[in-house]
Amino acid sequence: MIVLRSMWRRSEGKFALVVLGLWLFVALVSLFWTPQPLLATDGYHVWAKPSAAHWLGTDGTGADVLSWLMAGSRTNLLIVVLTVLFAGAFGLLLVAAMVARKSALAGASVVVIDALISIPTVLLALILAVPLGASITVIVVACGFGYGLNLARVARPAALLAARSSYVESALAAGASGWWTFVRHIVPNTLPVLLVQLSLSAGTAVLAESGLTYLGIGVPSGVPSWGHSLATSVKFINVYPLTVLWPGLIVTIVVVALNVFGDVLRDAADPLSNPELRRS
Amino acid sequence: MRFIVRRLLLFVAALFGVSVVVFAALRILPGDVASVMAGLNSPASRVEALREQFGLNRPLVVQYADWAEGLLRGDFGTSILTGRSVTSLIAARASITFPLIVLGLLVAIMIGVPLGVAATLARSDAARTAFHVAGLIGGAIPALWGGLLLILLFARGTGLIGLFPSQGFPLDGWAAPGQAVWSLILPALTVGIIVGASLMRYTRSALGDIAGSGRIDMAMACGMTRAQAVTGVGLRLAMPQLVSVIGLTFAEMITGVMVIENLFALPGIGSGLVTDVGNRDLIAVQSELFMLAAFFLLVGLIVDLLHRALDPRLATAADATEVIA
């Protein structure tokens, strides 16, 4: 609660919280209500301008643009949450390997991460897409893998510092297991870096979704997502330019909000930078 | 020395690992490569013929060994669809992708570095906020959308100000250089704006670090104005850092411009790969994926070795600086 309140006090934080809150709300609402049913296509009003029935107009099949965007927010939310979980778990596992007391394991994992980190996410997604076809799994695994590597590299210095601290040493001397010490003492020390990196990853995942879906290796056709809405409007850009405005605008705003969110959350959740947390 | 040997060994191991992963990814398809290539509803005899032609009826290990041996000799196989060698395909595509990246980077540098300097020099809160917001938004625009907006503004025929072609590349390629460059302008602008936004943030934070170390103040104490100190001293000190960022970005852009190439119908490396995946030209896809992965591993290797060579303290420095911070 204190964290949320401190975030709200900054204008950037207010922006991020409002946008992300709206995203959650719309995703929830779309579960049981959209202005028009997704599959209801109005053949007589193809590429309709915004009207009372279709607030943002219709697309080439006569489907309601707003309804698809609302339902799409659900898919994007799912992708972002899964990607962040994957990246977080994988990244922390790598961090654990890098600060391991067995120096052979630690050394090897650093070098392996350095070698693998240069392979771009898109390439990985393409390799995965050959057997899997277009699917959400491709996005989640490719992004989660790449962002996890990144996370591990960025979080390493803070984790090492904690691993070599006297409190970890005393915990180990008192008989605590290596994993317990890692979760209890080392992970909290990487939290500021972790929060920022994960929220950046969330933003990048939204961007990746739109790119991969456009390339035909992301969200399968027929499944609503922002990337899907963007990709379908591309084909008719010359005929009906306005429909392309909305999905891109939404993606941009959400990505900005996610990037800002990490920064503000770090400042608000770190007792070193937020005096209110120290008082309670 | 030990580090270099270990890093080289790892590079070779990673190449091997990537080749196995790519090979396996194409073999765990539902059905087999031959039936996928032949397409739906093709007679069994045709599938069998393809299988025979490409040696797909041999054991997997033999197939892999054959392919890997070809790779070692520099023989990347032949595209089934076009009958051209994969090497020549890649070369033709690279002749579009590389100029696009170079142009895009030029735009990015022209946008990013001056704006980064301006953001550092900005005094008023309003100006600082404006630069901050511009950087955030520039980095959050989906490449596809950015390209579309530029098409809407500047494309010949449909745009508000019709200047540039929005689709394709001249068929005779670089035989008509003017036309070729002209068709790369809009895609390069799209890439440039997005990369430029991140370059601006890098420039600003690098200059901020240098200012924090007191060297800008020092230069000003010697009589320079703030602008002179930042552009003359700060920028020069930040140069090595910026150059390495730009170098890494260059490598990433080879696949990073995939969406842009597709949008502007440019037959480059990335869009070609997507086309081949779509066409089920699997022999070509296999070699192309490996080639790209190998390229990125090589870039990683070079960057690592260069860092070592330039800064012998690196082995311990990463931990040491963190302690100070």
UniProtKB/TrEMBL annotation, chain B:
Residues 94-307 form the ABC transmembrane type-1 domain. InterPro entries: BPD_transp_1_N (IPR045621), MetI-like (IPR000515). PROSITE patterns: ABC_TM1. The chain crosses the membrane at residues 96-121, 133-155, 180-200, 245-269, 289-306. Keywords: Cell membrane, Membrane, Transmembrane, Transmembrane helix, Transport. The keyword Zinc does not apply. It is a multi-pass membrane protein. It is found in: Cell membrane. Belongs to the binding-protein-dependent transport system permease family. This is ABC transporter permease.
